[in-house]
Write a structure and sequence with these properties.
Helix content: 55-70%
Oligomer: single chain
Number of domains: 4
Strand order of the largest sheet: 9-10-13-12-11
Strand content: 15-25%
């Protein structure tokens, strides 16, 4: 039996090596399919703007995904068919040449070939590359482009045939149909009316749906509201600022607030009040105003940071953004550990109320018996911002029916407190003063 096995190995060594060669190609095409079609839209877009030729080539190939997929499947199919043909040829010769057990050995060759294609040619490469699609796609871009050129004469008629079949079975426009964000929001609002989700859940889902579209400048803490410290000032001033603001991290600047040089962790100062501030400076990230908060969140997670300075188009300091700001955009305002809880609706007198900006617009409407036209807002703060039609600031005032709203407090471009007065009462008081 051992002599038979040695005979098979030596006599069919070229064919076996060729089968291994084809198996490698099968694994390559399977891995390429998994990697290319696992890339996110953001990664594909980033590749298109990259200086790397391989990344730009990945972007180019994915602009015609149907052509790319056809090339990959053609290559995979040819490799597998070739492997099975060689395997069948070996099995047939073994069945004739080996008198004892030749049929059994031939059968094992076929079974081994099938398992090799499934496990080594499909499952393993796909499971590996789907975890690192960006790295593998960069490596595979040029080889798959070469195969795309080689298979061009075969690919064109195949894709044309597929397009004809698609037109017969798929109605025009069906391929392009997709649920829009606005449609999803309408579905969520309908679900709220049906009692499937509550107000907080609806607000959170809205935040998630808008996540990709929100830019850093929309939720950052503006420059005028930032607490910065001059690195040249004595340590005592920083300690006093930390006690007043309750901040645990304070950005430091040199000479001008447009020259922020790092961040100071307050705990380092309290541990050693005589410390040299420059020696405890930590690096801080700088991000442009138009950057998406989704991209910034990925950056925070990747680099293990929680704060960044926002710069304008001229490189000047525009504001500050933290990990908490991004999370609040999804889940709503997070109360700081040092903040005292306050009433969402506080009655001052018969016609005057102090209202929290995060009070539900529905609760406000029910309380005062007012019907509000749909404006796509969830809170009274958002409602007042919609009426103002500009970024709110303290003292801004706007009227709506019999009410006058005055902005009492703003935090990170959000209204946190509103003074509500009855319009009739206010006009009567003004007439008396006159």
């Amino acid at each position: 039996m051992e002599e038979d096995n040695l005979y098979i190995l030596l006599n069919y060594l070229p064919q076996i090596l060729f089968m291994l060669f084809l198996l490698c190609f099968s694994a390559f095409f399977s891995a390429t399919e998994a990697a290319f079609f696992s890339l996110t839209r953001e990664e594909i877009s980033r590749f298109g703007k990259s200086d790397s030729k391989s990344e730009r080539l990945v972007n180019t190939l994915l602009k015609t995904p149907k052509n790319l997929l056809t090339t990959i499947l053609l290559g995979n199919m040819l490799a597998n068919i070739g492997l099975f043909c060689v395997s069948y040829g070996i099995a047939r010769k073994i069945a004739v040449a080996v008198p004892n057990g030749g049929v059994w050995t031939a059968g094992m060759v076929c079974v081994f070939s099938l398992l090799a294609v499934i496990i080594i040619g499909e499952v393993i490469p796909k499971n590996i590359t789907v975890k690192v699609p960006d790295k593998y796609s960069r490596w595979a871009a040029m080889p798959i482009y070469i195969f795309d050129r080689i298979f061009l004469p075969f690919r064109v008629p195949i894709v044309s045939f597929i397009n004809v079949i698609s037109k017969i079975f798929v109605k025009s426009g069906d391929e392009e149909k997709c649920v829009t964000i606005d449609e999803l929001k309408m579905l969520v609002e309908f679900s709220e009316k049906q009692g499937i989700v509550d107000r907080e859940e609806r607000s959170m889902i809205h935040g998630i749906l808008d996540f990709k579209r929100v830019q850093v400048k929309e939720i950052m803490l503006p420059r005028v509201d930032m607490h910065l410290y001059n690195i040249a000032d004595p340590v005592e001033g920083l300690i006093e600022l930390a006690r007043e603001t309750k901040h645990t991290k304070i950005p430091a600047y040199e000479e001008t607030t447009d020259n922020i040089i790092g961040i100071i962790h307050v705990k380092d100062v309290f541990l050693d009040p005589n410390v040299e501030l420059r020696s405890i400076l930590k690096p801080i990230q700088f991000v442009p105003e138009p950057k998406s908060i989704e991209g910034l969140l990925r950056q925070f997670i990747r680099e293990g940071s929680q704060m960044a300075i926002v710069v304008d188009e001229y490189g000047g300091t525009a504001g500050l953004i933290t990990l908490e700001d991004i999370i609040e955009e999804i889940v709503g305002e997070i109360q700081d550990e040092h903040e005292k809880p306050r009433e969402t609706l506080e009655k001052i007198d018969e016609n005057k109320y102090l209202i929290s900006g995060n009070l539900s617009i529905r609760d406000w409407s029910d309380t005062f018996g007012v019907e509000i036209e749909p404006m796509g807002v969830d809170t009274v703060g958002g409602f007042v911002i919609t009426l103002l039609e500009h970024i709110p600031k303290k003292g801004d005032s706007v009227e709506y029916e019999d009410f006058v709203f005055t902005v009492e407090a703003v935090r990170k471009r959000r209204i946190t407190s509103i003074l509500q007065e009855m319009k009739i009462k206010k006009e009567a008081d003004e007439d008396k003063d006159g």
